[in-house]
Fold this sequence. Notes:
- The chain is mostly helical and 459 residues long.
- It is built from 20 helices and 6 strands.
Amino acid sequence: MKLWQGSFHGELDPKTNDFNSSISFDSRMFREDIEGSIAHVTMLGECGVIDPEEAGTIRQELCRIREDIEKGRMQIDPNAEDIHTVIEEELTRRLGDAGKRLHTARSRNDQVAVDVRLYLRKECDSLTAQLRELIEVLCDKAEEGSEMVMPGYTHLQRAQPITFGHHMLAYAEMFLRDIGRLEDAKKRMNVMPLGSGALAGTTYPIDRFRTAELLHFDAPCRNSLDGVADRDFCAEITGAISLAMVHLSRFSEELVLWCSWEFRFVRLDDAFSTGSSIMPQKKNPDIAELVRGKSGRVFGDLMGLLTMMKGLPLAYNKDMQEDKEAVFDAVDTLRMCLTAFIPMVKTMTLLPDNMRKAAAGGFINATDVADYLVEQKGLPFRDAYRMTGDLVAKCMESGETLESLPLSEYRKVCPLFDEKVYDAISLAACVNGRTVYGGPAPENVRAMAKAVREEITHE
């Protein structure tokens, strides 16, 4: 029996029933559906809409149904229309007419809306906890690599010397923003749609503020149409997850590069690599590659949500059943990626000698030559920039580096050069001197890692 079958006398075509059903993906919300129903029936009893004693009986039986599902004593029918039908029918089977009173002053429209919000509220907390764990690992790696000099890149070309720890903390900043976006989305989501009915509220004397209090929402929604038609929160959470996946994908791309023989900056633990079926020497960063690939899946979830909602008139439309598969998949994918990614980063081995060797090439201290002429000799930066470019050209012609180029060659370009230039352009000096706030100096890295730890601890 369908909950909506009041004026229908024929049976729904079996194939149409399968197409219409959402049980395969909304059954995960059984706890939230029962939680919302307990709050609703509690409020109905307190307001005298139904008998308070009967409300208590319904509440107790809902708790038993939840326990029976959790312990496997009750199986969810895979052929049912949705989880709301399963629970209400089971309640009615157990309590008879009393069970039928649960749906008083409620529609499936506002019931679904509250279930999804309750579910995603918990998922936001779960994902945020995982992101904090990842940031903690990044702080560990930042401290470990606070004095490991490596080349920083622009356009994937060696640019200036930085430290590995500084690089790790750049990703920590990204994931901190991801936490902020999830928390912001949760705040906007935390309004309670129950009492909106199908779209126009109800004539029953209910107390929506009491239901909101029982479910720990900040307030009930102010407009019944918006209460059942709003899925901004699904798109917003999926958008926040999409950006988190962008950051994981960028990090994964760098790990793939860093594990290659061309870089060899890090080595992944065997537990997070695979081999080749034909090339015995291969050690492939498959986990990083899968995370990079799964980002596209989540972007698809976001585009699906936005496209599904863009042409819908108020209020509820069946199209909106598509919201759950998309946002649930985004949540599941980010969780799965973080579950694999966190221990992969935690166990990776850093190879500082290879990092420093790479930093020694590519003239990444060229800016420091120009800065030497500006700070020590008083030249305008543009003149110093041009002269440094001439020196780099000389090095490329002769096979020298800026450190090995003879002082006589320096003085052919600018007679103001002296022996102090070699101290100014050493990799250690280049990195250690960048103590400006936000810079890669080791002392900065350690201080910032400490600050980040405190931030995620006190949130």
